[in-house]
């Protein structure tokens, strides 16, 4: 009975065309979504009785997707570093603006030199002390900028950890749908797109690796191999430090109670925003903070007053001192947080009731005691002390190697090296970011080229389906008219 | 089987990325072409930023040295002018003395001249510049020389009177001084009187100046003396000669003693003039060193500025060319985007 076979073939074709048109419309509707993958209907031929659909398949490219994930993690690492470094760079700005600690130290040196040329001038003495106060304030604010940058990075880690946790929860929901749907044979492709998008977002925060298993199930590990998701999500734990303590690294991030960042991590995270933030918070910022603290410490040492009576009294802090100071800090040993406590001795600060000319005469540490007075005659144009101070600013000091700079340099050189150090960190991070983001853009581009929807292609497919639908309909009407002819002949 | 493919999303995304990249570059290049420096010096130079910061430090320090050298140089030239005046006056005084030696009738003239010269000598040594006394050594806030004829009687004058009385048993103005012999007077002038102008007595009776001259750092490593002080031998000699004539009552002396005073004065003035010349030469050396330092500083500053320019600068013409290039590219990108949005199969069916 071939006419009825024709009829059933044509109707199966109509059904398939309908199915496929519906998928085409899905594709067109989602064409602008980044992680939507093009769907197509698999059509199988049933021998002798037309065609039928066997399921919806999605365009995939696992290799490129993995590359997208890893490059987005690396980009996020550098991005986080660049953000913090740019924040730290506000202590320097454009070198032309002379706002860096190095420039302030130099300005103060110039003010001292000016004072030494006119030691009798009250105005010059006040200008020099004011310049010293600017320097102390500059170091205070540099230290507080570093602390802010660290606090900012710390809360960034917190935000990242929260986001990872919520993404992992979403991941569980979607993954469950996929596994159940696959078992029951329903179309799970849209859920798989969703899962890809979650993974992409996840890779921004922390570097990940995925392992696919039966029934489209998926397990997620960090790039260091710690399980993030295996049937159930593992919780990331992090306690923000609030205000960062100078000289101490911030808290670590834990997964399942195991540290994955910081010195104690056995399987430390390799990439992702969290890694970048932790590096910025602990490595870069701590070193920079140590450099500023060292500058402050050496300032206190260089401007110390020594016993002039020959009584062998200990050196005492002079022009520069710090809150809680007891004597001169030991050489070459970092004192964390000193930069924020640095200040100009009120005994010499005219704004605080001090006498600016003590900068020339000595006796800043204790105006009542003659022990530390250099200008014993009270000569108005006594320059020996000022000159000694200028010499001391050019002399070499021992710096703590913990600050990751040279350990033997003059104050001015050290401050300039510190600027160079920070700018080098910026350059490295910026180069890294540019390289990785280009890599990310390229791999994401290749990925969407393969998995994305091309509207023109869908349109031509639609035309094709329209033709097939029309032809099948025509076929049915032809068979119909043939039947009518046959039945008419019988009647 | 498809061999190549492109999705609508990646087409649109590509044009968007290109536009953003071009605009970011454009902003930076525009800044470079207007400032002539790298848009972000730190990121461009990396660790080399240390170099430009150091150079900028040097530049500022050199600039400060130029300023402070001006202060020292002006103090020196003021001092030189005063010393010139003092030397001229001393030379004039020498002529007066010569005249007085040959004719004792000129004694009155010599006394008047000596008094005037002593006053102007005091004024010259008490010169102030910017509120600082030129010849006070480091003790610039104190007037170095007290007025000899001032009231109450100056310590210097009192000391002369006391010495005279001790030596001859009577003050200068009383009768009986005509009996002092030339030999006695010589002994007095070389002994007690000369001692009054020795370093020890001078600093207690005449001068409040400090022996320590003002020192100035004229370059990073050079520190030189940039003032003279009123305790110098030349000044003490001049004061000695002027006082001798002005206040020993030479009109009343015996011709013998008179001659001995005049001769001694000529001697001392002559010595002082040559001491003054030595002092002026010393100050002149300092002036010369400052001038040398300044010209060296100028050369260094030019070199450093050039060096900073090479490190931080970009060729503004090249930057301008790049801006134009980028503008063209952005325009092309816009045009392409517009064309691509029009490009659709829909239009042809």
Topology:
The complex is a heterodimer of chains A (491) and B (349).
Chain A: H1 2-29, E1 39-45, E2 51-58, H2 62-89, H3 101-117, H4 122-184, H5 189-205, E3 208-212, E4 218-222, E5 227-230, E6 232-233, E7 236-237, E8 254-255, E9 258-259, H6 273-302, E10 320-322, H7 338-341, E11 342-344, H8 358-361, H9 384-394, E12 396-398, E13 408-410, H10 411-451, H11 455-490
Antiparallel strand pairs in A: 1-2, 3-4, 4-5, 5-6, 7-8, 8-9, 10-11, 12-13
Chain B: H1 8-35, H2 41-45, H3 49-102, H4 107-125, E1 128-129, E2 132-133, H5 155-168, H6 182-196, H7 199-205, E3 215-217, E4 223-225, H8 233-247, H9 255-312, H10 316-342
Antiparallel strand pairs in B: 1-2, 3-4
Helix pairs in contact in B: 1-10, 3-4, 3-9, 4-8, 5-6, 6-9, 8-9
Give the integer mean of the pLDDT values of chain B. Answer: 90
| Apparent shape of chain A | rod-shaped
Structural class of chain B: mainly alpha
* SS element count, helices of chain A: 11
Summarize the helix and strand pattern of chain A as letters.
Answer: HEEHHHHEEEEEEEHEHEHHEEHH
Oligomer: heterodimer
Q: Helix fraction of chain A? A: 55-70%
Uncertain parts of chain A: none
Give the total of beta strands of chain A.
13
Q: So, the CATH homologous superfamily of the largest domain in chain B? A: f41 fragment of flagellin, N-terminal domain
How can the largest sheet of chain B be summarized? 2 strands, antiparallel
């Amino acid at each position: 009975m071939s006419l009825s076979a024709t009829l059933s073939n044509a109707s199966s074709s109509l059904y398939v065309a309908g199915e496929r048109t519906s998928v085409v419309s899905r594709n067109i509707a989602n064409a602008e979504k980044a992680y939507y993958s093009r769907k197509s209907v698999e059509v199988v031929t049933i021998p002798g009785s037309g065609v039928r659909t066997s399921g919806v398949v999605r365009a995939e490219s696992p290799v490129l997707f993995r590359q997208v994930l890893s490059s987005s993690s690396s980009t996020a690492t550098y991005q986080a570093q660049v953000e913090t470094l740019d924040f730290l760079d506000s202590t320097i700005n454009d070198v032309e603006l002379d706002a860096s600690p190095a420039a302030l130290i130099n300005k103060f040196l110039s003010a001292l030199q000016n004072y030494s040329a006119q030691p009798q001038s009250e105005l010059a003495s006040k200008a020099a002390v004011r310049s010293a106060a600017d320097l102390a304030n500059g170091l205070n604010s540099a230290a507080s900028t570093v602390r802010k940058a660290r606090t900012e990075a710390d809360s960034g880690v917190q935000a990242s950890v929260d986001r990872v946790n919520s993404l992992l929860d979403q991941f569980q929901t979607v993954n469950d749908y996929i596994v159940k749907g696959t078992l029951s044979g329903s179309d799970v492709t849209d859920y798989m797109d969703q899962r890809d998008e979650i993974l992409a977002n996840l890779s921004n925060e922390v570097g990940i690796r995925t392992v696919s298993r039966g029934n489209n199930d998926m397990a997620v590990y960090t790039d260091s191999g710690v399980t993030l998701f295996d049937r159930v999500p593992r919780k990331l734990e992090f306690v923000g430090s609030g205000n960062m303590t100078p000289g101490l690294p911030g808290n670590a991030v834990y997964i399942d109670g195991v540290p994955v960042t910081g010195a104690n991590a056995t399987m430390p995270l390799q990439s992702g925003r969290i890694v970048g933030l932790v590096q910025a918070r602990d490595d870069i910022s701590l070193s920079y903070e140590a450099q500023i603290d060292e500058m402050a410490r050496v300032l206190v040492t260089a401007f110390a007053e020594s016993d002039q009576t020959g009584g062998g009294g200990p050196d005492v802090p002079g022009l520069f001192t710090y809150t809680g100071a007891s004597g001169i800090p030991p050489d070459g040993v970092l004192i964390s947080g000193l930069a924020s406590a640095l200040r100009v001795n009120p005994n010499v600060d005219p704004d605080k009731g001090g006498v600016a000319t003590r900068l020339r005469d000595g006796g800043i540490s204790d105006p009542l005691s003659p022990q530390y007075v250099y200008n014993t005659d009270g000569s108005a144009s006594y320059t020996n002390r000022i000159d000694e101070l200028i010499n001391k600013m050019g002399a070499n000091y021992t710096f703590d190697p913990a600050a990751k700079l040279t350990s033997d340099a003059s104050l001015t050189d050290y401050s300039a090296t510190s600027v160079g150090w920070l700018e080098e960190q910026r350059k490295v991070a910026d180069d890294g970011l540019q390289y990785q983001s280009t890599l990310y853009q390229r791999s994401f581009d290749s990925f969407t080229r393969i998995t994305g929807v091309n509207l023109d292609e869908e349109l031509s497919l639609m035309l094709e389906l329209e033709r097939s639908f029309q032809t099948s309909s025509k076929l049915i009407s032809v068979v119909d008219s043939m039947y009518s002819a046959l039945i008419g002949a019988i009647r | 089987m498809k061999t190549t493919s492109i999705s609508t999303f990646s087409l649109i995304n590509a044009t968007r990325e290109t536009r953003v990249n071009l605009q970011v570059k454009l902003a930076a290049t525009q800044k470079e072409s207007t400032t002539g420096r790298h848009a972000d010096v730190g990121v461009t130079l990396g660790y080399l930023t240390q170099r430009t910061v150091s150079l900028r430090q040097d530049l500022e320090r050199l600039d400060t040295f130029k300023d402070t050298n001006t202060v020292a140089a002006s103090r020196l030239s003021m001092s030189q002018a005063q010393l010139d005046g003092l030397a001229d006056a001393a030379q004039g005084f020498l002529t007066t003395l010569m005249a007085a030696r040959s004719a004792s009738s000129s004694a009155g003239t010599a006394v008047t001249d000596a008094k005037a010269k002593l006053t102007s000598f005091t004024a010259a040594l008490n010169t102030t510049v910017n509120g600082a006394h030129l010849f006070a050594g480091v003790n610039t806030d104190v007037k170095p020389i007290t007025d000899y004829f001032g009231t109450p009687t100056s310590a210097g004058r009192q000391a002369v009177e006391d010495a005279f009385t001790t030596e001859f048993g009577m003050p200068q103005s009383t009768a009986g001084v005509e009996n002092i012999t030339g030999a006695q007077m010589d002994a007095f002038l070389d002994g007690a009187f000369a001692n009054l102008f020795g370093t020890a007595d001078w600093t207690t009776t005449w001068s409040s100046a400090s022996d320590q001259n003002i020192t100035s750092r004229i370059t990073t490593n050079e520190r030189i003396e940039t003032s003279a002080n009123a305790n110098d031998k030349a000044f003490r000699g001049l004061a000695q000669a002027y006082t001798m004539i002005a206040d020993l009552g030479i009109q009343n002396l015996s011709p013998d003693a008179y001659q001995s005073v005049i001769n001694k004065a000529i001697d001392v003035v002559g010595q002082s003039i040559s001491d003054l010349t030595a002092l002026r030469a010393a100050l002149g050396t300092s002036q010369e060193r400052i001038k040398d330092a300044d010209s060296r500083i100028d050369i260094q500053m030019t070199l450093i500025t050039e060096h900073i320019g090479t490190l931080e600068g970009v060729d503004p013409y090249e930057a301008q060319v790049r801006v134009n290039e980028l503008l063209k590219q952005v325009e092309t990108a816009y045009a392409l985007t517009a064309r691509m949005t029009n490009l659709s199969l829909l239009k042809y069916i």
